[in-house]
Amino acid sequence: MAANLVGMTLPSWASHLEHKLAPPPLLLVQAFVNTLDLDLRTDVLAHADEARAWLAGAGLRDPGQADTDFAADLQLARDVREGLRAMIAHNTGGKPLTEAELRPLEQVTQQALTRLEVTADGEVRLGTRTPAQRLADGLAGLLLTIRDAQADGSWDRLKLCGNPDCLWAFYDRSHSRRGAWCEMASCGNKLKNRNLRARRAAG
After folding, report:
1. CA 167/CA 182 separation, integer angstroms
2. What are the pLDDT digits (tens) for 165-202?
3. What does the alpha-carbon distance between residue 162 and residue 91 come to, in Å, rounded to a whole number?
């Protein structure tokens, strides 16, 4: 556990996020996309040990899962992350997703084992096992979270920063829904932005 937002302690997998946080469970989608920091050129999913720990901590992969195909899993995770980034970009006027961006998302839907459950109050839910037994199941859980956010109207508030050197995913809580920057001051000043991210990476 690392930071706080309105009395809520953030889980360790979201410790790299500082402001404009999405509400749970959409927070996990935001944190996953932001495992790649374009400004600092750091990538949590670049190295197997760090990626394995983050994915397990976020519940996207069973820590006891055999690592037989972990290199392929890791590549799928990176590809899905870019597909999700393209989906978020579409919220801010971006282009429709390309075939290359859709391909890993479709791969997840084909590989994942989803299940239906009926709650005590009679609600029918579609989900994946938590924590996910396989990475494809965990990634499918992100897609199901997006589907729910699209249904409740919160999805279009998740946006990419308008600074092309940043593209940080942020949650726009403004009344007008016209927020364009992850942080106005830092993205208005690129050097200040770099210093901010460097302090966060060092911390």
Report:
1. 8
2. 889 999 999 989 888 888 877 786 664 556 667 777 87
3. 12
